[in-house]
Design brief:
Residues 693-821 form the Aconitase A/isopropylmalate dehydratase small subunit swivel domain. The protein has 31 helices and 36 strands. The protein is α/β, with parallel strands linked by helices. The protein folds into 5 domains: 10-77, no CATH class; 87-372, Aconitase, domain 3 (2-Layer Sandwich); 376-402 and 421-611, Aconitase, domain 3; 661-680 and 726-895, Aconitase, domain 4, CATH 3.20.19.10; 682-721, no CATH class. The model has no long low-confidence stretch (mean pLDDT 95).
Amino acid sequence: MSQIDSFKCRKTLNVNGKDFTYYSLVEAEKNGLEGVSRLPFSMKVLLENLLRFEDGRTVKKEDIVNIAKWLDDKGGAGAEIAYRPSRVLMQDFTGVPAVVDLAAMRDAMVKLGDSAEKINPLVPVDLVIDHSVIVDDFGNPLAFKHNVDLEYERNGERYRFLKWGQQAFKNFRVVPPGTGICHQVNLEYLAQCVWTKEEDSQTLAYPDTCVGTDSHTTMVNGLGVLGWGVGGIEAEAAMLGQPVSMLLPEVVGFRLTGKLKEGVTATDLVLTVTQMLRKKGVVGKFVEFFGPGLEHMTLADRATIANMGPEYGATCGFFPIDKETVRYLHMTGRDEERIALVEAYSKAQGMWHDENASDPVFTNTLELDMASVVPSMAGPKRPEGRLALEEVGSGFEKALRDEYKVTSGQTTRYAVDGEEFEIGHGDVAIAAITSCTNTSNPSVLIAAGLLARNAVAKGLKTKPWVKTSLAPGSQVVEAYLTNSGLQKDLDALGFNLVGFGCTTCIGNSGPLPPAISKAVNEKGLIAAAVLSGNRNFEGRVSPDVQANYLASPPLVVAHALAGTVVKDLTSEPLGEGSDGQPVYLKDIWPTSQEIQEFIEKNVTRKIFAEKYADVFKGDEHWQKVNVPAGETYAWDDQSTYVRNPPYFDDMPKVPSPLENIESARILALFGDKITTDHISPAGAIKVDSPAGKYLTDHGVKPADFNQYGTRRGNHEVMMRGTFANIRIRNFMLGENGREGGYTIHYPSKEEEPIYDAAMQYKKQHTPLVVFAGIEYGNGSSRDWAAKGTSLLGVRAVIAQSFERIHRSNLVGMGIVPFVFEDGSSWKSLGLKGDETVTIEGINELKPRQKTFAKITYADGTQKNVPLLCRVDTVDELDYLHNGGILQYVLRNLAAE
């Protein structure tokens, strides 16, 4: 609580006879912060945060004034603030390495002669285990049990470690496997909209805010809770009391009008919004939704749009609190006293959206009439690649020619060993109802169930080459689908429950049936996946499937029936019914009224209350996991899952000065839009890869490799997996590059895996740089994309532009991000990879400083290339000087 209160705004709010202390924006405006009532709602949340934490050091009076000045500069001034979120959300892929780091910090603190207890979360942390379940079994009633059994068999060591963390650290809770997806659990249960805590004998009320170690943390903005994804290392710092250093953003207002037409879903809407915002360019900006269209949007629809913030590039997509928020809080079983506080607090603060109030001030705006939205899908490899449903087939045929370079045999079908059917290009190999993006939304899930019911009644069947799955984001979904009887119809088409978790959306689709996989790979088929997820990047969904399409759950079911993405489902039949007559999509698509009637009858407050009553208890598997005790972790040197990382080895109490980058070698030349999936894959580990060889050398059988995501607690595996995605292309190896994580080592000119080359350079004490195109590091908030890059010895990444989270993560690991200052690129500079790079002035860097890279070509000629250093803030510069954010925090805590 601020002891300074420059604007005399600490007040008392009485709600139903109980007093709450709060920092009043209305009073702050009266006392000098002129006009702040006109700020966007999301900016009001930041303002309250600074008023509450004003300490004269990390938050000064002028920082608060800068938010009022935002009304004039609208985010263009780039003022820096220290923001403190209320809590931290984690999932297990990113959470395990974060807890590993905290455990390692405890060891390091003890080595520095201090108490391990100094390393403890200071804000509430919730870790939801959702990323580990894989769709090994599918299409039968026992699939769920088999997948859960395999999950525990593979991940027992990781789960023991997390259980240790739960007993060792304060303010740290673990939601066990099989509960749901972290963002849906956050939306339905964890988020409170207004947070409270006891402080100085008073109950302090303030906005619920969070950062999460998953990029889709943005989903909770649909509930009026400001939140976004950060790297694990930044989240760890936030847990330990460090503010999140950020620049006051531009806020793009997105005005929504009208309402969706009959037959159009929230998924169609979010794909349209994503395409529009990607085209506009909102990277590093807040997006805030407003306008009369909000009146026609359910909370679940808003959450679907907020979820895909990373796909449209924004830091967040914010919806203010209103009567629909309160309705949702009640329906999901929140405490009635809390709901009353949310409404009273929001109204007192001017944070309540009233359709009759004037619009806030925005940096700029764009508008969408929701009545113009049409049924859509996005693919085959970008979330913003929206296609109207009737264009999907022709769009695939175009991609087949232009992107996949298939110029002959486009319609040829091939036999499958042991089967009576044939498959060809564009056949749907995977149809998955998956992901918090859509499974949090009853309207599209009920629609999928009703479409399945209608299809079964017509006698339609799923095509035999389609791998089907249903993986809801919470147990509530399973309850209302079962209670309504719709699960039986989904089961009849093969959409049996396979698990509660992320599954196909993050690449945990499991293996295709061997005969299908063999036919696809031997014939070079471009097979398709249709999923209700949020990402469809190359190589993400399955190594056997190249064309990935995002679609609503009912369209996922429809494509399982059609078996192909080549058909135009608006005019061609899905198949023949039991009467031999063609059945079209329009024949089985449910009406909005039918969907709404099912929701009103089956999606109830009672179900939410029942399913979340024992959310931290877990199933019998979880309860049997043995918990090692102790405030420091007993590392197992033989473990291939959890190892003590090297970040704090021989760390001096005082950091060494930064050194210039002298005669660095180029490790890779990458193209545009390299994702964090490309840099640090989450999926399968190939036997002949450096990571596969490491596991084999340590006695792990290939069947037990699991996947990169589950091995993130082991730096040895992860550094070998860096740049090892099967689809990443290094242009040092020819004009078209070579896929699969290879490079050329100089001066030996040997072609080898990137890891092997990096280790040679490390032995030779040769620093490394990486070059890339636009939007380097987009996608997941994957801190291992930066950690692995650092452990390979990369000192700098030079790109045309960076995605927000990855840029921050690079700095957090002591790597300097640079962008070309003059619009040039590695291609325009004629780089081949045999050059050396020198960057001076590193030891005198200032935030966003301009400098030069001296490129020395193989023939001895040189060129100075102007660069802009993307270390954006003074705090980030401190992290860089310390070798990374964790070292900075550790030294500060040790000095207290």
